[in-house]
Amino acid sequence: MKIKNILIILCFITGLNTAFANDGWYNILNEGGNNKGIKCTEAIQKTIEKAAANGGGTIFFPAGEYLTGALKLRSNITIYLDSGALLKFSENFDDYLPYVEMRYEGIVMQTFSPLFYAKDAENITIKGRGVIDGQGKAWWNEVYRIETAKGPIPETKYQKMWVEQNKGIVYEPYYKRTIDKHFFRPSFFQTYNCKNILIEGVTFQNSPFWTINPEFCDNVTVTGITIFNPYSPNTDGINPSSCKNVHISNCHISVGDDCITIKSGRDADGRKYGKACENITITNCTMLSGHGGVVIGSEMSGGIKKVTISNCVFDGTDRGIRIKSARGRGGVAEDIRVDNIVMKNIKEEAFVLDLFYDKDNAVEPVTERTPIFRNIHMSNITGGNVNKAGVIRGISEMPIQNISFSDINIDGKEGFSVITASDVEFHDVKVNATVGSSFKISDSKNLILENSGSSTPIKGTPVIKLDNVSNVMINNNFPFNATDIFIEADGKETKNIFVKNNVFNNVSTVVKKGASLDKKAIVE
Q: Could you give the residue numbers annotated as active site?
């Protein structure tokens, strides 16, 4: 009887094992892989293909060290890295061949396969508590070698391959220096024309180029991940481009370039595809080292719209919120909301909205090449130890339009500069600058400054400086501290400046009038 029971139990266990063996869970150690750091690309890729052939599944990496080349993900595949698992990518460039169609800095081309790559797929997941290391230093060093060469150097086989496979590629003259390298590093993770993407929990480090870079994708969720790239070229954190329905949350990012950037293609190539990046939410993230905390552009030729950024901390980034483009890019950045942000130790500007990003060229007629910034609103933001509060700079044929700042407090060196803009409002904004005016506004119209000024006014320096502006309301201000000059206005084009409903008991000079100011420009 006991033997019979044992046989029954053994049969039951065997049945369970058989069931689990077919439940879509593939332990890579049982599929020919190893966790000893010996390259096993073939085993991993074969397992992905095997799972995909069975309708999908999870490729499980237990604790240990794994080494692989580029991996092509399929529909319904999950890569799961357990705690203690370290997945490293090869430093041999041959392991990223053949070239594939991908997007590099907003231009579609044939080049090295991204480390994780998928095209025309769905339901792709990378999750767990493990670490994925791109070992990007080999790629960075190759870029440095090409860029620092003194005079012509022989082209590598990779550069020759790039030229052969990208004949007829179209780009603007200003981008020639980049194209002439003929060497384009792979993104760490790029899904191309895919949908239903989830990246959760894992740590990415040492990316060769941009880290998380979905292109032309729908329904992308990135949550709870850590990205760490040291000082290195163009190693952005999370860069959705021409995607819709993107959710980024609870991430910790410290990188060699921008932490999170929203893009939609470069110049004519971006307009050719004409696919906006839209319905984007970013929340509950911390950004440390990086050129920008959250950046929109500069590759925005397909348009960027319906973006919310909230509940984030930027500590030590070069800039906070940065929206950038230039003549020739085209595209519209609009319907953007930023709320509940704390910034600290910002090396440059807390806010940038700039249409002179990477070139200063001649005025053009308004065409599809003309970039547009409009309907952008920022509120409930605190900034400490900031170099400059902000820069808003439009182009004469397309001023930046309908911008508001509400409930903002900035302590730093310099204040806001507003140049060539329309319909800009500051409500309850305090900028405590140590050098210059808190607000310098020129060549702009339709402005409101309500309860906005400085808690630390500088002797002999106006809090608000106006030059060639029109239709301005300055109201509901009550400077608590002794203020030498509140407003300085000048410029032949300055008119319709209304200074109303203010209490200036602590102000020595309410308005200092410049020599070219019309006598009727100020209405008090």
A: 257, 291
